[in-house]
Amino acid sequence: MKIVVIGGVAGGASVAARARRIDETAEVIMFERGENVSFSNCCLPFALSGIVDNSDKLVLMNPEEFWNKYRIKALVKHEVTEIHPDKKEVVVKNLVTGESFTESYDKLALSPGANAILPASIKGIDRENVFVVKNVTDIKKIEAYVAAKNVNKVTVVGGGFIGLEVAENFREAGKEVNLVEGLPQVMKPLDEDMAQILHKEIIDNGINLYLGKTVTEVGEGEVVLSSGEHLPAEAVIMAIGVAPETKLAKDCGIELGKTGAILVNYNYQTNYPDIYAVGDAIEVTNRLTNDKTRLPLAGPAQRQARAAADHMFGETHSNRGVIGSSCIHLFGLNVANTGLNEKDCQQHGYNYDFAYTIPGDKVGLMPDSNPLFFKLIFEKPTGRILGAQAVGKGSVDKRIDVIAAMISMNATLEDLKELELCYSPYYSTAKDVVNHTALVGLNLLHDKFRQVPVYKVRELVENNACIIDVREPDEFEKGHLINAVNIPMSQFRERLSEIPTDVPVYLHCRSSQRSYNVICALQKLGYTNVYNISGSYLGISFYEYYRDKAEGRKPIVTEYNFA
What is the mean pLDDT of the chain? Predict the structure, then answer.
């Protein structure tokens, strides 16, 4: 068996290594047009701050190691320029000498990756101070330019994973950073109510955030926005997204899918059975919506690579599609998500609801206990879990991993409620965040109470709705909604006459737990038009803060409360 792999890193290198483990006698050749065949692309931004203290450490394995350890022939600076499926040959160009040669194969694996998008419509996009972050060479170019030009003002374009990580690491390095995002929020996988927490964290750490605006021109030491604003930019990092590298595949007759990425079957074969494709360049299926999509993440690429290599040798596997689990670190916060968000559910016509809770990430007596913002989305009336998002200082990835497993098993709120998880005060609470939120979701599913999300509260305040704050007076005095009435949980039974029955009544506390208890009591006492404000005062403060600051609008709170 002779296996040729085009492209390295997570996809290609994993195909090659798996093939070697299956068959010691197979001939395995890997061609990489870049300088490095195996590097940690996910760690690239962290070299900009010194967290990775030397960009050379980003290289995980060189061609000599591939040969000595695995007997894999890895050739860097070698670009495959043509594929001839009828002859089962590829044409390879040595980018150092300029010479070309042909190489035969029995099985061919494509892992060409994706290219950073550089819109030609942006005037000056080809300036020397415009960079992308795709490989180690890109990082070295940025490092060299920043050092040579003594760069202090950086503009990052794009508020996705790469953009946020680059912006954070430049800020940690002491640079002045602008972050520009064309959407109204960063982190598209999050719903807007969760993204607002990130917006506060970004500006609190000294980054200038520009949302709903695009870059139209890169000038001399500046960028121009669609709003007409001019931002200082001695260096510009473009991170608005990636496009699958498909030219080589398309030129040889490999079919592309609906998304423009390489079309593969259940076993990651293209329309040529002996040619496989994996990684950022292929089209995958979302298992929840059945939509065709692209998911440029390292974890899925490695699983695809293993499956493709297995199939080359007749081994089978299970291809369930993707659900899109991801996480990111942002200054003092950890952020994670999986499955569908509200926007996805609305787009695909799901009948859904969500439970939004803010419990502690561990027992409150522990000195580093902090609130964990958790949003769990579920289908109605089945209770099937569709997705989740988490933001906090604690282990949000652990909680989202649990939900990802639940989604993969088609689990429901009942399953999650009963899920037995390990517990110690150092790590969680006896009723973990995920169990807690499942219980809230079940109460909503079974109409035990009704809720109003944080993004509806401004409308309630502006319409002078009846809002009751059930926190204690000292909490109320430190900050409250401007039209709220303070009837503490400890006093409401003696003050029932102050709670109207002829209009909707909206209750909140700090995180919605006390207000929920009051609602339960009021419903038993005959009140039928009461609503809990999910997220309560803590959620309202985080949701309102950034837009109040950015838009200069009048706050609906007397003081924000973030503790």
Answer: 96
What letter would DSSP give residue 25? T
Residue 139 in contact with residue 54, Cβ under 8 Å? no
Please provide residue 109's backbone torsions phi and psi, each rounded to the nearest 5 degrees: -120, 125
Under DSSP, is residue 326 helix (H, G, I), strand (E, B) or coil?
A: strand
Q: Using the 8-state DSSP alphabet, how is residue 8 labeled?
A: -
C-alpha pair distances (Å), 188 with each of 297, 546, 548: 15, 17, 21
Low-confidence ranges of the chain (pLDDT < 50): none
Beta bridge partners of 384: 412
Is 296:114 a contact under the CB 8 Å cutoff?
A: yes
**Measured between alpha carbons, how far is 302 from 314 in angstroms, rounded to an integer?**
19
Instruction: Report the SS3 class of residue 133.
Output: coil
CA–CA dist 203, 342 (Å, integer): 25
- Start-to-end C-alpha separation, the chain: 62
Cβ(515)–Cβ(541) below 8 Å? no
Beta carbons of 378 and 339 less than 8 angstroms apart? no
Eight-state DSSP code of residue 276 = E
SS (H, E, C) 50-79: CCCCCHHHHEEECHHHHHHHHCEEEEECEE
Pick the closest to residue 356 from 339, 332, 373, 343 (CA basis): 373
Identify the CA nearest to 335 among candidates 537, 168, 545.
168
- Name residue, tokens 């035969």: 104
Looking at residue 9, what is its pLDDT? 87
CA atoms within 13 A on the CB side of 52: 23
**pLDDT > 70: percent of the chain:** 100
Q: In what order do the strands lie in the sheet with 450-452?
A: 450-452, 530-533, 505-508, 466-469, 485-486
Q: pLDDT of 119-168, one tens digit each?
A: 999 999 999 999 999 999 999 999 999 999 999 999 999 999 999 999 99
Q: Which two tokens stand for residue 185?
A: 């929020």
